Amino acid sequence: MSNERAVARSLAAVWHPCTQMKAHERFPLVPIARAKGAWLEDFEGKRILDGVSSWWVNLLGHGHPEIEAAIRDQLGKVSHVMLAGFTHEPVIELSERLARVAPGKLGHVFYASDGASATEIALKMAFHYWANRGKRGKNRFVSLDGGYHGETVGALAVTDVAIFRDAYAPLLRENLRVPFPGEAGAIDALERLLSERHAEIAALIVEPIVQGAAGMRMYSPEYLVRARELCTRYEVLLIADEIMTGFGRTGTLFAWEQAKCEGPDLMCLSKGITGGFLPLSCVLCTDEVYAAFYDDDVARGFLHSHSYTGNALACRAACTVLDILERDGVIAGNRAKAERFTASAGELASHPSVRNFRQRGMIWAFEVDTQAAEFARQAFELALSRGVLLRPIGRTVYFMPPYVIGDREFALLVDAGLAIAGRFGTPS
Ligand SMILES: *Cc1c(COP(=O)(O)O)cnc(C)c1O
Fold this sequence. Notes:
Blueprint: H1 3-13, E1 34-36, E2 39-41, E3 47-50, H2 53-56, H3 65-75, H4 89-101, E4 108-112, H5 115-132, E5 140-144, H6 153-156, H7 162-165, E6 176-178, H8 186-197, E7 201-206, E8 210-211, E9 217-218, H9 222-233, E10 237-241, E11 266-269, E12 281-285, H10 287-291, H11 312-327, H12 330-344, H13 346-349, E13 354-360, E14 363-368, H14 375-385, E15 388-389, E16 396-399, H15 407-424
Parallel strand pairs: 3-15, 5-6, 5-7, 7-10, 10-11
Antiparallel strand pairs: 1-2, 2-3, 4-12, 8-9, 11-12, 13-14, 14-16
Helix pairs in contact: 3-11, 4-11, 8-9, 12-15, 14-15
Residues 114-116, 119, 148-150, 207, 212-213, 241, 243-244, 270-271 line the site of pyridoxal-5'-phosphate.
């Protein structure tokens, strides 16, 4: 297939996500034929550096030989079997290992296939937990300003990103929102809300340390310490949505670890869990949550299900990702790497049109002071013309590369950032 054919056929048949399709009359659709390491390649051999890990999922690079080999090996055994009433080796191994490495006492794992489904599961589980304990009135959720937890109807009700939410507002159940943790008085506002309305609140859901879709907004782990105390005091479950932050993205295996306090009650994982190879998500819960469902009464059980729950190929890929992270000391290695990268980005950080240059783990972000009406799209195109995939959010440009990225490749991201700031920025 040629680039041109791929684009024409795709635009005729595929409804692409998160896109006004008509915009593709003016705006390129990028056909990809192959991918290896941090690089994508189109049908004519043009290479594009994947600066956003293919929407935050690709952890260790494309075409990773070990993950591919593990999936191939699993193909020869069992690809998928229903998880209701059946089990298999990859799901057992993955569950045991996640429970071992997760923060706190998260001893049980419930599976789905995408992040939004994990959010749905966590919300339903939190509500049902309290109902099983005789507190059916606890049926609302608290989320943070700017929080993003997926776009199915339940998840969207705790998501605060206007562009995803506004069109569907009439479908969404009203929930409660508290200020972004970086704002003065945020923890007091949370305390006030929980103290006044805890009788109707099942859970608080947060993206620990970095809010991704809101534009890589970063905040101090101290908020999580205080939120943990408040949730315990007011009998509200705490859901850590580590769908983006998990598996080392923020510099520790899970972002929650940086709070150095008791763990969350529920934790959602997806995205990097399979290294970006196969769709998989899960919710970990404490023994205490699990025990509230364990009963002779069927209706007290968690009867939620998805067809591909616990898919064997995906679980096998996830086990291999853990193997690699552990064996190769990837996260410790990333720390040294990230320090070097940040040091190399001084010119970008101090560019007159660049604001609030920041970094956590393997995430770098900054705002561009710009008047450009379609900044995000134009910046995307400019980067693409330089062979770099960046996908700005509003005026925020971010780098979230696969961990295999090297110094020379990171320099290409920085150069693209400088080109964007130079072209669209209004220095003040
Ligand atoms: C991406 C994301 C989700 C949703 O995951 P999908 O697989 O896209 O449904 C939920 N929460 C966070 C923090 C995310 O970054």
